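User: Sequence in, structure out. Go.
Assistant: Echoing your sequence, followed by the structure tokens.
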Amino acid sequence: MNETSIPKRFTYDTVAVGQRSRSKARTVTEADHGLFVMLTGAWHPIHCDDAFARASGAPGRLVQGTFGIALALGSHLESEIFESADPLISALGVQEWSYKQPIFIGDTLHLEVEIADKRLTSAGDRYIVDRHVSLVNQRGEVVQSGIARSMWRRSV
């Protein structure tokens, strides 16, 4: 990206508030949609019935909202731009996640990640990083976003 990109294999000393990175893009396929509906059991007609979705004013079936969270935080999209040299201890949660636009089959999505905060734990042997994560479609629209928090063991 540029000099403010999140460093590859970052450590507590190299990651800084304001650093940003953007992932490669990935197109949501029919197979992705079908597998996620089967996994979650989200058989609502807005996701599974094209005529129902169109009658509701959508241009077609909507992808279930939690697919966006899974794609943003549990996939190769984030791992390619947010990799620490230190061991991950735990994902600590997601805050303020919001659905801003629908996701449709055929949308091509990428992530934009910005370091929002970093801090050492009281013992100093671990650190916590908050990052603002935005899932962005092919039209440049943020479809989902929120804050993800994780903890790493600090290498000395």
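User: And one key feature?
Assistant: Residues 35 and 41 are 10 Å apart (CA to CA).
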